[in-house]
């Protein structure tokens, strides 16, 4: 029945919304309905005010979930979920003090620092990831920045070329980069560069003191100017207030162009880090964050990222319904445990999800045609 309502709403986003849940506080429910309608009719916008996003975020949860789903179904092929693999190609020993990170050399987490992995090992991992259905291969190095790492950087350029040549999207997360390095990565064929903002500008100094929010925005600018897609999101469960979650989404949604990809992570509290005792994030918090991200950045890939291992299949199903359309596959997510491969395959089958094919360049993804959307909705 709910699906029938959704199918109907595709034709008339105005017809549902606040009225469908009359017991909800009218003003908040109306905010999510209006924002969703505008996202569907007008596409992405960068002029969001923070109170506007706060109003969407504060909507009664079922309204928010419903409107996130509505945007998702209108803007994306909503059954498609991209599988990405994230490999730590240079683990541990990082000089930064990110409070959540077991790879910081400042915390005693028992993690052994390693050198940059060699080409054979990385290419083997990429082939395995491709065979397992991943269409994006992400390489993460625990560095503050790549400046002054010429030899390693040149090796990474080589890895990017090789993996792109295998027909996969390639992403790197190597810390701060300069303009010149972004241009070289672009030339090598890099699809996307990940650099998360983590949280709001206000809460950021509680989490990291060794580089500033503006340093991060600067790296994003270099990536954008080089013509590489931006992958940037954050982590919830760091002890931040809900206003900080809204602040993060507001910064991302008011960048000159929305990130192509927005990872939403739930903190995985690792023993030995300053955040080891943080309370686990609840599924409702993830859904609220994902649905708001989907409404305010309608075209972005919203990635259900770290912390997924703690969520059951029905809980993940709600995240996909709210607007998530990507997961990380593989045993590990950098250094922390990730979901089991077979369990993910079973989940795709049960939920009727379809692995998303890779897409290259920065061409705009074509939205599904109206007929295709109706067929998808009708067959659910
Ligand atoms: S920069 Fe990256 S690897 Fe280094 S401590 Fe921060 S999150 Fe960890």
TrEMBL record:
Pfam families the UniProt entry points to: BATS, Radical_SAM
Binding site for [4Fe-4S] cluster: 94, 98, 101
Pathway recorded for this protein: Cofactor biosynthesis; biotin biosynthesis; biotin from 7,8-diaminononanoate: step 2/2
Domain Radical SAM core: from-to ranges: 79-308
Comp. bias (Basic and acidic residues): 370-380
SUPFAM superfamilies named in the record: Radical SAM enzymes
Bound cofactor: record note: Binds 1 [2Fe-2S] cluster. The cluster is coordinated with 3 cysteines and 1 arginine. Binds 1 [4Fe-4S] cluster. The cluster is coordinated with 3 cysteines and an exchangeable S-adenosyl-L-methionine.
Needed co-factor(s): [2Fe-2S] cluster; [4Fe-4S] cluster
A Gene Ontology molecular function term of the record: metal ion binding
CDD domains xref list: Radical_SAM
One GO CC term, this protein: mitochondrion
InterPro entries associated with the record: Aldolase_TIM (IPR013785), BATS_dom (IPR010722), Biotin_synth/BioAB (IPR002684), Biotin_synthase (IPR024177), Elp3/MiaA/NifB-like_rSAM (IPR006638), rSAM (IPR007197), rSAM_sf (IPR058240)
Superkingdom as given in the UniProt entry: Eukaryota
Enzyme Commission code: 2.8.1.6
Name of protein: biotin synthase
PANTHER family assigned to the protein according to its UniProt record, in alphabetical order: BIOTIN SYNTHASE, BIOTIN SYNTHASE, MITOCHONDRIAL
